[in-house]
What we know:
Layout: H1 17-21, H2 29-48, H3 55-70, E1 78-79, H4 122-132, E2 136-140, H5 143-155, E3 159-163, E4 169-170, E5 174-175, H6 176-182, E6 186-190, H7 198-204, E7 209-215, H8 231-241, E8 245-250, H9 268-273, E9 278-282, E10 293-297, H10 299-307, H11 309-313, H12 318-332, H13 340-346, H14 349-363, E11 367-375, E12 385-393, H15 398-405, E13 412-413, E14 415-417, E15 420-424, H16 433-443
Parallel strand pairs: 1-13, 3-6, 3-7, 7-8, 8-9
Antiparallel strand pairs: 2-10, 4-5, 9-10, 11-12, 12-15, 14-15
Amino acid sequence: MTSDEQFLKTLRDLPRVDDLIARLDGAPPAVARAAARNAIERGRSELQRGCEVTLQQIVAQAQKEAGELLEDRVQRVINMSGTILHTGLGRAPLPLDFGRTQGEYAALEFSLETGERGDRQAWVREHLIALTGAEDSLVVNNCAGAVLLALAAISAGKEVILSRGEMVEIGGSFRVPEIIAQSGCRLKEVGTTNKTRASDYSRAVGKETGAILRCHTSNYKIVGFTETPSVGQIAAVAKEKGVPFIFDFGTGCMIDLAPFGLPGLDSFPGLVSQGVDLVLGSGDKLLGGPQAGIIVGRKELIAACAAHPLARALRVDKLTLAALEAVLRAYRTGQLDKIPLLRILGTPLPEIRRRARALAKALGAKASVVESESELGAGCSPDLKVPTYCVAIKSDSPTKLYQALLKVDPPVIGRIEKGLLLLDCRTIQQGDFRPVKSALEKAL
């Protein structure tokens, strides 16, 4: 056996850092040193656990670590999972040309008219006011942050009224009652899990009431013997009692998506017109933009949010604002085809079937075309789905095939269903056909 193949018997047999660095040709010194140390430490742990270790394994581990340190870890993937807004894949895909600020200085908080300090949200605010009909707006880093800020700025030390049917838990075990507590407010529950009426809100309002809060039940639906008041009814109660009405509707929808096969969804302008005082939504869901928490509503309430210390902690950066401004501009100018999410939702079903048939034909007998449904994902709606076509691939081990597709460049994300690997053809982008075909040929 060569020396590399010999087993290391004691900790003294582990290679020196410098000796291992010498084997990592081409790696920058800092990368080579970090990779060598990590590989030796892993070998030490294996020996201490009684495992067999060779020098060859340690060298290979160091080479792998050096490669991983040099490559982009947040990389492009091709989403064929069947979930359109896949949280693990970054939710809504962004426009490719979302600004001229990448890699450059930007007039972010600087007025080119006066040469003095400006307002970083000026352009985004102009678009949001025009699109929603609200008096003012504020953008923070995500919708949970928007809820926290709104409650802290408007209702700290007071009661916040919330229906028992809307005490939601969102991803990562974050619960709305806990966010209310963190904001410095006290939760006041009204109604029951399945039935809440406008009169419940009316009776609950008192001297200690800071706001009425409504939360979109994004990832579940209560059906059967149920009742819930309309947005307008709650807005009327809030107006009569003189308390703010805050609606965390989550999805961030800006227009009526019924033409895209998604009827009955709330939207920013629709909620503003119904009298909601503060409307809170996400930027990276059905808006089709970057992660952001968008707040629109009454001017004095927005001013209170902007003046609160948390607003600084939740402030968005130039890339978020550039991407959001590009998406909002597309809405305002009617150029909806520039928003990738709306292109995905608006792709005609015959076109999706054509894509699926072409891909299945290229793959041969193992592949077939099946009708299916794409999920919205990201907690937008638990029951709305969009019709689609998938390529179904037979395999002795669909799990191994799924894993193999994660290792190609770019990785292809599918799903396993009823013993088949399914690849949803609604969410593939223009130019994805060849990479997907190549990836499948390698994996098969």
